[in-house]
Structure formats: C-alpha cells, structure tokens
Amino acid sequence: MEAEQATKMSINAEEAKPHQPAKKPNHIKLFLLLLNCVLLTVGQVAGPLLSRMYFLHGGKKRWLSAWTVTAGFPILIFPIAISYQAAKSSRPKGSRFFLTRWLFCASLLLGLVLGFNSYLYSFGTAFLPVSVNSLVSSSQLAFTAVFAFIIVRQRFTHYSINAVVLMTFGSIILGFHMDKDVPKGEPLTKYVLGFFMTIGAACFHGLFMTLLEYTQNKAGVPITFDIVMQVQFVISMSSTLFCTLPMIINKDFETLGEEAAQFGLGEGKYYMILILATVALQIMIIGSLGVVLSSSSLFAGIITALLVPVQQVFAVITLREGFNAEKGMALALCLWGFASHLYGGYKAKKQPKCNQEDELSQVHKEEGHV
C-alpha cells in the first residue's frame, strides 16, 4: 500500500511540474545561424553599395537613407504569419508564441537606438567612399568587445585588446590621409564629418548589438524562431518610425518626386535603387539580429569585420573606387585584428577542456598514491 501511494504521489508530482519546452536541436540551431550569416553577407555587401549609388548620382536625403535601413520590415509579416499558423497545432502547452511585455518594450527601445545609428551611418554613406566607410565601420568590433565586457560581462582577453588596438590604428591611418580619398567636387569638411559620424555609428552599433544580447539574456523565455522574428519586426518598426518623423518635418516625402526627376541615372532607376537598397538593408538587419540571437554580439561583429575585404572588392569593381596603400594597410590591420579576436575565442573555448583534463589527471594521481 505504501509503495502504491508513493508511486501515485510521484506521478502527481510529475504532472504538476510545468512543461519545459524542448531545447532546439543543435542541427536546427546551426542551420539558422548559417542562414542568418548568409543574409547578413548579402545585405552588407549590396546595401551600402546601393545607398552610396543613391548619393553619388544626386540623392541628398540622409533621413531617407536611414529610413531605408529598416523600412522593409513588413516583409517579416509573412514568415511570422506562416509560423503562427503552423504553431497552432504543434505548439506544446506552456510554451508561448508572442513576445512578453519585457521583450516588446526592450525591442521598442532598441529600435530607437538602431534608428539613430542608421542616421549617423547615412553621413558616412553620403560623404565617404564605400571602401573607406567599410573599413571605418569595422571598428564596431572593437566597440562591441568593450560594451560586451561592460554590459554582458564577456571576458576581455589580451587577444580582444590586441584586436581593439589594431582596428583603432587602422582608422587612425585612414584619418591621417583623408585628403587622398576625398571624392572630386566634395569639400574636405564633409569628408571629415562623414568620417567621424561613421565612427560614432560604429560605436552605437556596438552598443546596440550588446544591448540586444543583454535583452536576450534577460528575456525569461526560450528564444525560439518565432520570438526572433517578432523581435526583429518590433525593432525595425520602431527604427522606421523614428526616422519617419524627421522626414515628415523636412517634407522629404513631398519632394521625393522632385529629387527623382533630377536624379543622374533617371527617375526609373532612382526608385529602383531605393527599393533594392531597402530590401538589401532589411536583409542585412534580419541577418545581423539573427546572428546575435543565435550566437552572440561578438560573433556578429566578427562576421561584419570579415566582410570588409568583400566590400572592398565590390566597391572597386562596381563604383570604380581607388585602392591605395593606406587602405591596404588599414585592411591588413583589420584582418589581423579579426584573426586575433577569432584565435582568442578559440583559446577561450579550449581552456576549460584543458583545465578539466588537468583536474582529472590530478585526481587519478591522488588515487594512485592512496
């Protein structure tokens, strides 16, 4: 009798436990990470080139350029709706589909940070060649490392410090030779403004990525594919609304047709470039946020830095930009910093295994002595 009662009590206790959602299998997590890396790559290479093309041929609206970074967010409605319909029948009890209040409010605030960051970034797109802009923007890895150390307590090794120093020197080299890269007909003051605004954008981007990782850590719910898509939607929507208000004040929407008529490549290509830039940049944002939520802010920064050489090649081929010795030196320092940071991460992952093996060998030695 006592045994039967104990069995019933254990069964009741198991039923009373809240349902724990199953962890996402490693192969699915890896697939989503690779997919987001591909989206980030496509968007980061194509987006800045199209945005720069807009400014090169007569575009002057910087808030419009910032607006295009996230204005493609409605495309996220389709995967969210499909996922919701699919989850109706398969979702286990106790799991949630929609964002918590914390995630929703945090995503709104993150969107404001992203909107301001996009505006700073638009100065670099307007006044700097893509090859210079991408090199200066790569310093966001250094800012991400610093903010990750302060906010999410990510360990700061001497490899990380080395990467920060190298990338900082790369930006300094470009800064000392600004006069060589100034596009024809553009004042040096605008180039200098674009240079420092891009550094500011890199700083805010590093802060944004780290705050996103912090939000993920404090979410209190499993970060599923559905949650990731909704977080991306709210962040992009908030950023777009942030950029829309100044556009209304400046009457950018009202004068859009006038700027299109004066565009160097023609009115049709004006709208085509803006639409393609919006799609490419939204893909970049989806990939970037997805990498952070699937991995970490530092890994997203590393991927961004790794894409700098690819951006350089496409800028030289498509926009006929020059590539001088200073850019080559800055690129070498950027890649060196990236390699240092990557090796540091490898060593950090390997260290616990070595320590565990040392502890086991020490235990065996002590048992042998006994």
Automatic annotation (TrEMBL):
GO cellular component: membrane
Main location: membrane
Membrane topology category: Multi-pass membrane protein
InterPro entries per record: EmrE-like (IPR037185), PUP_plant (IPR030182)
Origin superkingdom: Eukaryota
GO molecular function: purine nucleobase transmembrane transporter activity; purine nucleoside transmembrane transporter activity
SUPFAM superfamilies assigned to the protein according to its UniProt record, in alphabetical order: Multidrug resistance efflux transporter EmrE (SSF103481)
Pfam families in the cross-refs: PUNUT (PF16913)
Protein's cellular compartments: Membrane
Residue numbers spanned by region Disordered: 1-21
Segments crossing the lipid bilayer: 30-51, 63-87, 99-120, 126-152, 159-178, 190-212, 224-249, 269-291, 298-317, 329-346
Keywords per UniProt: Membrane, Transmembrane, Transmembrane helix, Transport
Keyword hit for Ion transport: no
Family that this chain belongs to: Belongs to the purine permeases (TC 2.A.7.14) family.
Database matches in PANTHER family: OS09G0467300 PROTEIN-RELATED, PURINE PERMEASE-RELATED
The protein, known as: Probable purine permease
Organism: Linum trigynum
